[in-house]
Structures
1.
Amino acid sequence: MLQYAITESGVVEGYFGHDPRVTVFKGVPYAAPPVGPLRWRAPQPMPKWEGVRRADRYMPMAWQRQPGVDPNEFWTREIHPTGAEFAMSEDCLYVNIYTPAKTGEEKLPVLYYIHGGGYQGGYPYEIEFDWEHVAQKGIVVVAVAYRLGVFGFLAHPLLSAEAPEAPKGNYGIQDQLAGLAWTHRNIAAFGGDPDKITIAGQSAGAGSVQCLITSPLAEGLISGAIIQSAVTTEFADTKGGFLRSGSLEAAEQEGVKFFDELGVTTLEQARALPTETVFAKSGSKGRGFRFAPVVDHIMLMEPAFPTYLHNRHHRIPVLTGYNRGEMKMFSRMGGGMLPKTLAEYDAFAARYGDKEAEFRALCPVSTDEDVQELFQSAAFDGMAAGLYLFGTLQARQGRTSYLYEFDPSIPGEDNAGSFHGSELFFAYDSLARSWRPFTGKHYDLARQVNAYWVNFVKHGDPNGTDCFGNALPQWRKYTEEDQFVLEIQDEIHQKPERMDAVTAFRVNDTLSRA
């Protein structure tokens, strides 16, 4: 097996994984530690080292609220049962590489995975990722860590003035891009093909994938994309337009306020503050998710949806979908701004202008209860309807996309359903790591789902066979004539209906406004 790899910065030594057919290289640096004077700067090249660097342990996760501390928290039990055992640091720019290659000459397809966590948390070795098991099926896996929260997404006028030609605020996305470029330059030494890199991510990782496939700076680095929960699309009826708020100017002003709270006036002072001090202040006053990607007109020219709308994203195949139960989960968490009363319904309907009568005919209501039932339907599930909107756009532009809806039975006394992130255990074949009492049918399903994902990495097409050579149910690409959505329930089949009339109305209305 491949034990040593020569990277641009030096030699790394890998080790057999739990599966001796896979060599694991943990904690390989792709950029210099972004600490001290490199805090809030673009990732810099990793200095060369002498001798052999042992890649035998995971490096600290990016600084965040320590995961896994509360044993009663849903996410602790689900994906962070060991989260409290790992260290955190601003020194976090590392990749973990899992390769079944025996030499550096094999040119295996590469999966480049970006973890989720709302841009505030997460790490690439969470329990739901069995990367060795995935790599054993004939691909190289690269799992990247990147800066989060205030360290990854602070914008400030002083930072913009310091590096006027560089991307602004999006340090976490710059890290992901630097890791991707590093992978392109170095992955051949690990048996991977630099010209066959599929990027993938879920939740904020999916948002990150979309940042990269819409960024001009990533041109030529990506051969395919997997976007899990969910693709970004914006309906005119719920957004009032196609552009989200969050301009660079607004983000910079938030940064000015943050420096005031820190009691600093210069970048030197801010960079000299202890990590704990900066992080503690970043979570005050409900700031939290304000530290996220921003349109800076260098890394990100515009939000993702206008880029899709105007056919400006990279021309690569896309596999994307959502979990049926996640919108219900978000609703229980207090999310959503859709109408709940007749008065709110009237205001909503009026947004359609000369199409208001058509909307009312499609969506008749007479009580507040009717309104609530209507807006809890799939037609107003942002992820479900957004998927059809994305698929329609892709088809009209002659692009290839494969769409799915994930909704198998998920066991457990909490009756969580197909919650946000539940597909990860299937897509990355890690059911045995979960506390949930999965049975044989779930393992059979996971084998198929993971095979679709691996086939897509290999060929840009999920179809083919599973790891035992069994033919998979056909997954046709989405077209306007054949609105094929793979329905992943306890068994796999085609979603039985095309777009319902209300979803079709919303999709066509949004596209007609463009």
2.
Amino acid sequence: MLNIYTPAEIERITDATIGRPELIAQEDDTRRAALLERRAAFVANVGEQVAREVAALCGSSKPKVLVFAGDGLCGAYALESASELHARGIPARVILFNIGGNMLTDDARAARDRFIAAVGEEYLDEVINVGPNSFVMPQINRRTIVVDGIFGSEYGKPLRGGYQAVARHINEMNARVVAIDLPSGMTTDLSVAMVNRNIVHAELTLTLVGPTLAFFMPENAELIGRWKTLGVPFDRKTMEEVRCSMRLVDAKAVRQVLPRRLSTDSKADLGKALIFAGSYGMLGAAVLATRAATRSGCGKVTCHGPRCGFFVMQTSVPSAMFVTDGADIDIREFSDPDDADGIAIGPGIGRSDATAEGLGIFLKSCFASQKPVVLDADALNIIAANPELLDFIPPRSILTPHAGEFDRLFGAQCSHGMRTLMALKMAERYKVIIMLKGHNTLTVWPDRSILVNSSGTEALATAGSGDVLTGLTAGLLAQNMAPELAAVSAAYIHGIAGRIAARVNGVAGTTAEDIADAIGTAIDSIEKE
């Protein structure tokens, strides 16, 4: 799995690699010269790799290239990339912001001097003032490639004044933007609400150490664009010492934890899943969740629903058992007479008083026996309406809310970043696993680890897709998977199933039924990859 870093971890790794200027200045002459040489070599390395990516974007069309450089380390990277672009035959023009004429750091000043020595001053516009009569934005169009090296992550707060105007102009011209480190004006602080039009919008973001969690927030998608980690060398010892609590889940990680079916196994060896789902008018949710569970690899699946679902379930999912507590249109008594290995509650169960009462009794029973369950849809809505039930969710249970369900449970959040921070608190407080559904579904563990799913696809944006995920999760849990791993694996398999279904039916034409039916193929593809 790929590490996802906190800003503090990135700062620690960078400092260990190139040092902090104020500490370097305190060294003796010999040591200081060696450290400065290492720092300059690192800056040149970053510039070379940025130039390589920009050249690849240029291709053979030779578009106009503008490099916007700030006065700090990110500006130094940008200046070095411009020097390298010229060496590659790409005449990049540099706009260097040195407001007041004396703002350049040693890194930026040295990179500017190297650029002038190698290329000449005719390709450098050094901006001393950003007033209305002193700085005119260069011509930009949709074919222009803009290298954004103004601030990266150095500034850490919203752009103001002339810088804000520069960002807006770049965005309005719809240029192709390559951002170094981070789009200028963007912050990686999830609790900060940002005005996106005041931030440079990148087509490609070239991160140095690796991504932060902010890269996976939907509100930042138009800012980050595609992202890629450059292959610059960092201090190996520090990289190994950093223990990231956030990871990007891939096929290899899932393959290592998926249940293995032996040739001698019978259905009795592969676990029992129990799905509480359905009510009058919402039996489709029960069908989808149950069908997904049957495709997960577990040995036996039972759906507990209302009497009105008997013929629907027996004909739609004949491989599953169907039981009822005798109520005609909803579930009123929740029970687990067969001691199922994986239990899911919620798809389409409705929110009647009788259902809510029955769910509360059952949750307390599971809490007493410390048996984790999967909670989704109306189960979460019932708990939101009866918040005292939060204290009776069994430890290590899996909650699978989309944004609306999450906000009903834990309070309205103004952004997905704030929602993620709240999920960390709630998972730790209630000792539960929260799958915060989205394109990059986040699985939050009680120990505050966050696993980011990498298999998301727009094909999953269809009614009933969440019910499929719930049934799949219960089916994996039934196969004796740890709840934490079952949740992470289910999210990844769900995404792969969506991609497989979309190849057959098209993205727009993919339905939840298609996704459920592709689960088996998805699992096979992961195991064979």
